[in-house]
Amino acid sequence: MEQTTEMRESKFFKSSKIFENVTLISGLAGEQCYLVEGSERALLIDGLTGVGSLRAYIRELTDLPVLVVVTHGHLDHTGAVFEYRECFIHPEDMALMSSGMHSGEEARLEFATRKPQEGITLADVVPAVPVKTYPIYDGDMFDLGGVMIEVIAVPGHTRGTVVLLDRANRAVYSGDACNLNTLLNLPGSASIEEYLESLHHLKQYEGAFDVMWGGHGKRAVPKSAVEDGIRLCEEILTGKDDRIAVPPTSKRSKEGCLLAKQRGENFLPVEGGYCNIVYTLDGLHRAEKQPIREIPYQNR
Ligand SMILES: [Zn+2]
Question: Does the pTM of the predicted model rise above 0.90?
């Protein structure tokens, strides 16, 4: 697993280079995003919670024009879209991103101050504003000038989840798509059946990357996490996983959450591997999960 070195710190953000042209930036709650620079433009992959000005922080890091893409519509990935006022996002997650649950200032402050933070108030939260969205789909490419970044759709954690492939650095920026705490128990998650298909799709690219840098967790996970996830989904669908009852992972998640594999030290499954999944028994099959259809900016 790759290590990062601390580089730059402000009241709200910390950043370090993980590759020559890629900076990992983390927010107050440890949520992570990535700034990938080409010769002509930079791509901000995810936007943290929007507590403190990420846009001002990034202006210190690069003079390039910045495009923003979000791996999915959750509030700990989309905060900066309210500063840039436009972003690339898979259409399946547009409603989720602009729902009150994920755009609301108080919800975002609450996330950022999960661990008590001194002197952080609602005044530090970037207000939600209408955002121009450009749809992205599986197979799309961002040309940053000498640096190409590819979109791979991986519905699961949310229906509109994408990951970004950086062939030159042999890395995938994976948001919350596949990790040691993959949440498929949320409103807007896809079924285990669909997630299994997504992981098979992602696996087709395994020759092009070694690691996945995600939205949380400080370190990259090896690409073998994808295979671990495939095996887990198969076990879940046949009732052979550990099925450990766990409390709902957030106010938004449903009752009856199950963890697929027993955790040991450092959150790692005791059986080994780099993937674990939280799910509910009513979310195993395609037809059981309905897409989110919320009215934007309401129900805050
Ligand atoms: Zn998420």
Answer: yes
Q: What is the pLDDT of residues 253-285, one digit of tens each?
A: 777 899 999 999 889 999 999 999 999 999 999
Q: Cα of 72 to ligand 1 centre, how many Å?
A: 7
Distance between Cα 41 and ligand 1 center (Å): 26
Provide the residue ranges of all domains of the chain, joining segments of one domain with +. 8-288
Separation of CA 160 and ligand 1 centre (Å) = 11
189 C-alpha to ligand 1 centroid (Å): 9
As a CATH number, domain 8-288 is: 3.60.15.10
**Burial code of 228-250, b = ≥16 C-beta within 10 A, e = fewer?**
bbbbbbebbeeeebbeeeeeeee
- Neighbour-count burial of 224, counting CB atoms closer than 10 A to its CB (0-12 exposed, 13-18 middle, 19+ buried): middle
